[in-house]
Each structure stands twice: as C-alpha cells, then as structure tokens.
Amino acid sequence: MFIDLFKKLLGLLLVLFVPFCFYACSNGVDHTWLFRCDKGTIPEGVYRYYLRESYNKAIDIVSESGSSLERLSDQKIGGKSFGEWIKNDAMTSCKDLLAIEVMFQDKKLFLTDEENSKVSSSTESAFSALEQEFKELSVSKEDFKRAYAECKIKYQKLFDYFYEKGGKEEVTDKDLIEYYKNEYVNYSMLTKYIIVSNELNGEQLFNESKASEEQLKSARSQIEEYVNLLNSGEKSITEIANIFKEKEQLSADPLETETIRLKDADINEEILNKLKELNVGKADYVRINDTFVLLFKNNISNNLPNISNKETRLDILKSFKVDDLYRKFELVKDGLHIELNSKLVKEIVPEKLFKFS
Asked: How far apart are CA 205 and CA 199, in angstroms?
C-alpha cells in the first residue's frame, strides 16, 4: 500500500518537475538566473527588462549623434557594436541592482508600509500599460517590480541615508551652495543671425547659408563693438541687449540667460568651451557658420538657487553626489564575487529580441 502511494506521489512530482527542468535547463542553459552571488540572484526576466531599457537608450544615443536608424546593426557606440553595447549596458544595470539591494540590506534599511504601497501602485499602473510588450519579452510583473519600482525607491533611500540632512555624509546648505558656485555658470547670450533675402516672382526668399564677406565683416564688427563696450564696463549686458534689439528691429527681448553645469551641459561645444575660458563679468563671441553668438558670463553668486525648495535642493544634491554614490556601488560589486551565466547571455540576442538589423 505504502509502495503504491509512494509511486503515485513520485509520478506526480515528475509531472510537475520535468516541465520546469525542461525550461530551466533547456539546451544545457539554466534560465533561472543571470547573475548570482552568496547575497542574491538576478533572474533572466530582470535582465530582459534592462535589455529593453538599454535598447531605448542606445536608440537615443544613435539618434542624437545624427546617424541613421535604418541599419542599427551597423552602428557602433563607444567602440562596440549596437547589440554588444546593449548587452553590456543591461548587465551593468543588473549588477547595479544587486549592489543596491545588498547595500540596502547591509545598512538595515527597509520600506515602510506606505512605500511598499507606492511600489505596488506604480508597478500596477506602469506594467499594465506595457503588459503586451513585457509578455513578448518574457518579463513578469515581479521582474518589473524589482528592476524598476523597488530599485528606484531603494536607490533614493540609500541616497538620503548618506547625503540628506541628518545623513551619514550630510551635505549642508553651505556645502551645497559652495559646490553650486564652483560647478555652475550663469551666462547671457545674444545671437546675431545673417539673413540673406532674394526676390523671386515678387516674393521674398530667405537663405541663412549664403552670407557675403561684406555681411560677415559687418556682423563681426557689430558684435566686437558690443564685446568691447561690455569688457570696458561702459555698458551692461541689459543695455547692450536694448541697443541690439533696436538696431535689429526686434519685437521680443533678444537676451537669453541660462544657468548650466559645465560638466554635462547639453549645448554647442564652441559655446561651452568659450564659457569655460571667460572670466566673470567679461564677454566674448563665437561664430557658428554664419551666426555670431555673443556670450557674457554673469556672477553666479547673484544667481543662486532657492535651496529651501525641496526639489531644487535635491536636483543640485544629486548632481553633486550621484557619482560618489555609484563609486560606493562599485565597491560593493567588487566584494560580491558575482558569477555570470554566460550561456544564458549568449542565448539572448538583442538583434532577435528587438528585431533590428
């Protein structure tokens, strides 16, 4: 009797186990993990989610470079093929997640009931909007929750743990303002366009790319005069802007004033380099094709942010300390002795997954 019962139970276990084993170890590839160490495991679904994120990131990089999106397999990013870059970037994200989770646990941090509720809520809303796409990528809701919603809030809590007020490496308001003064630049800009008009059949045609030498000489002379007036202290940038507005017969204020962080500013390279050279209270110009751009570096101390505003303070604090936090993550990763499932990585081909050629 007991032997018969044992045989039935064994048969049932085999029915349940064999399909799982077939999936987990099909073709000799274990699909249950991508990275693992003694403190945690990253499953295949999380890697697949990060592949999607890296693919979208790679598309943006290629697009911003001005390259064609028609044959992505021919593109290179940082010296690597398009597909290889995606895989490497996704694997980096997986390791970062593991480091965040391990550090979060080591620091004895935890999510409150309210935070867990937010994680569940954001997971539900975001996953439902992309459910079909995730299904095709074999990304489960639990994979998405861990890689996106939980990772995001754990990262922020670790950031606060170190750098926010009362943190282990607290950044004071004084430190933050000092950082801002050293790393950010406030500048004003006037742009002189050379517009060439031609008449055809009674209509005015405008072309910005055919300025004559005489027009270029005149525009340069005009801008150089403004630069000299500013550098001598005879005129302020506001007064020069008013003179320029009247001369050019403009209806709108031509003066543009911006604050940027020099380290990662997304502006024209010539303008960026000129701003790095300029002293406070001084002006210069750059020529970009047939356009002249006058630049005046303002005193950043007269244009400080309101760090009593929580969001403003956090934005600046992140720009200050995000690299430092990632260095901490790197130290964690170095000590984890992470094992890579290279067979699984080789099996998942971005070109096939996202159907690009």
From this structure: 6
Tokens representing residue 254 in the block: 């031509």
Q: How many CB atoms lie within 10 A of CB 182?
A: 9
Rounded Cα–Cα distance for residues 223 and 293 (Å): 8
- Give the CA distances from residue 310 to residues 118, 172, 313, 317, 319, in Å, rounded to whole numbers and listed in that order: 20, 13, 5, 10, 14
Closest C-alpha to 135, from 49, 28, 239: 49
Contacts 24+ apart (CB under 8 A), 275-280: 275/185, 275/187, 278/187
pTM over 0.90? The answer is no
Half-sphere exposure (Cβ direction) of 92: Cα atoms closer than 13 Å: 10
Tokens 């809520």 correspond to 121
For residue 334, give the amino acid letter: D
pLDDT by residue (tens digit) across 80-99? 999 999 999 999 999 999 99
Strand partners, 36: 41, 339
Q: Of 272, 235, 279, nearest to 255 (Cα)?
A: 235
**pLDDT per residue over 132-155, tens digit each?**
999 999 999 999 999 999 999 999
* Distance from the Cα of residue 346 to its chain's centroid: 27
